Amino acid sequence: MLELLRTRRSIRRFMEREVEEEKIQELLQGALMAPSSKNRRPWELIVVKDKEILNQLSQCRGRASGFMAGAALGVVVLGNPEASDVWVEDCSIVATILQLQAHFLGLGSCWIQVRKRETPEGGKVGDYLKEVLSIPQKYDVECMIALGYPAQEAKPHDKDQLSYDKIHYNNF
Ligand SMILES: Cc1cc2nc3c(=O)[nH]c(=O)nc-3n(C[C@H](O)[C@H](O)[C@H](O)COP(=O)(O)O)c2cc1C
């Protein structure tokens, strides 16, 4: 597990290669087993493989999201605030599990923040995505995860360089 965590890095360049359906299903199974507050599972996932839609997703935040256009797939993570007051945490856990499972399967991934972010035109990124993906109004989009076979090398984390000063024992 520690080795998986050490070698996971954000990947923003992907090969043209498609991701096998079997791997996509494993990814999604992992996500669906995510823990959630009161086991409410207040999330919905939209899996996008269509190039044109990936292209539209990529435009939501300029450079911060542009690499979605080159991804083999994107998973949009949304939550229902009516279903849980901690939907943000629950969605974040799902997204993190997606990223770790992706790395385990030899895929690269990167989180693209949606909640609280604006489009280059100044609108809410969530509203733009609701339009593009026909998401019902009551949901809020937390993030999107871009995925695919990595086309870039990423240096693993160095265990000696971790911020050990952020760890406190017994009190701050
Ligand atoms: C909540 C969150 C939001 C992020 N938003 C973006 C984003 O919008 N665009 C992007 O390129 N990377 C985004 N990232 C990826 C971070 O930049 C990246 O995780 C961080 O720089 C650490 O690098 P590493 O993932 O390679 O360890 C986000 C990561 C998190 C956890």
TrEMBL record:
<comment type="similarity">
    <text>Belongs to the nitroreductase family.</text>
</comment>
<keyword id="KW-0560">Oxidoreductase</keyword>
<dbReference type="Pfam" id="PF00881">
    <property type="entry name" value="Nitroreductase"/>
</dbReference>
<keyword id="KW-0285">Flavoprotein</keyword>
<protein>
    <submittedName>
        <fullName>Nitroreductase family protein</fullName>
    </submittedName>
</protein>
<keyword id="KW-0288">FMN</keyword>
<dbReference type="GO" id="GO:0016491">
    <property type="term" value="F:oxidoreductase activity"/>
</dbReference>
<feature type="domain" description="Nitroreductase">
    <location>
        <begin position="65"/>
        <end position="149"/>
    </location>
</feature>
<dbReference type="InterPro" id="IPR029479">
    <property type="entry name" value="Nitroreductase"/>
</dbReference>
<feature type="domain" description="Nitroreductase">
    <location>
        <begin position="5"/>
        <end position="58"/>
    </location>
</feature>
<dbReference type="InterPro" id="IPR000415">
    <property type="entry name" value="Nitroreductase-like"/>
</dbReference>
